From TrEMBL, chains A, B, C, D:
CDD domains: DUF326. It comes from the Bacteria. This is Four-helix bundle copper-binding protein. Gene3D superfamilies: 1.20.1270.360. Residues 6-38 form the 4Fe-4S ferredoxin-type domain.
Amino acid sequence: MHNSQNRPVIDALQECILACEHCASACLQEEHVKMMARCIQLDRDCADICRLTATLLARGSVHGKHLLRECIEVCEACAAECAQHDHDHCQACAEACRRCAEACRSLAA
Amino acid sequence: MHNSQNRPVIDALQECILACEHCASACLQEEHVKMMARCIQLDRDCADICRLTATLLARGSVHGKHLLRECIEVCEACAAECAQHDHDHCQACAEACRRCAEACRSLAA
Amino acid sequence: MHNSQNRPVIDALQECILACEHCASACLQEEHVKMMARCIQLDRDCADICRLTATLLARGSVHGKHLLRECIEVCEACAAECAQHDHDHCQACAEACRRCAEACRSLAA
Amino acid sequence: MHNSQNRPVIDALQECILACEHCASACLQEEHVKMMARCIQLDRDCADICRLTATLLARGSVHGKHLLRECIEVCEACAAECAQHDHDHCQACAEACRRCAEACRSLAA
């Protein structure tokens, strides 16, 4: 059931997806887009991997748990990149990615 | 920005996605799956259409608003079907779909 | 059934998705990323809208046909933007988007 | 680049997605849906996991290769389940899943 054990992770994944989608769009409107290229690329991958993981966990699929490791990896990479940029959307995204990685790590444990 | 005007709709979309994904899986485990076939089919479509709409709204894309009408249609169809079944997951899904349709309707207005 | 009437459209959608995903990544690696910002944004939206349309058509869902109009709109916008850039990936993407819009238009008719 | 080394895998993934989406819908219309419940569940997961893998590979993302192992696992599970049912859509899906697992295995090697 998605309402019990998995719910905190699903919530963290959904916040992370929103932060990444918004960060990518906002980065594309920054003055120095070139500096943000890696950030945008990671935002795209992170949003999509988190989206599938949330879907599979909501579904109660065994494959949801299998994706947690990849989810943690991309969230940590995205958090590390975003943390280097001062923009509000990057800082918010870094924080959402860190929380998501942490939530995934507790479920994976 | 996804945090202001769009946020209530995005939240309603995300609850609807979770309810539909869970409902489809739970329907597949019911004694009388055949009776649930249309419910499962609508759950799949509703989850996927809501997922794209949430993604585009979070992204600040103009296409997010364009999808609202289709989203309302599939949410209403899914709510009407789910409401006919007594299972807790169907009742919860009907409610989430109705709320989502309503939230989409206010944003579309 | 996805193998008969819908198959040419699904094929065009899938080619368009690949071209858009590749174009967005390649744009992010160009020297002048800022000039490509709108292209990247449209590539993201176009890929995602085409992906859902292909999914729903493959599924035989009535909602697949409903998405064709939006699909045509985003494909045409993406084609118009990409056509303005000389990069091979942009020219290839413009062509894939045009073919996809055309295929969607014949199915919608 | 998605046109060279990755292209055969992407093609196999896309055929697998179409076969799974169609198989799930067709299973829901069979006389004995209950027998098809596990098939439908695996079709959903397999389509979604293959869809993300194809997306990431088209994008040239390193995470595409990371998903291959999970993709192989779900394709093999789906192929094994589908192979047990005589319906044309199940046999076609089993074959598409097997080819996809094989293509993923060669890229992963």
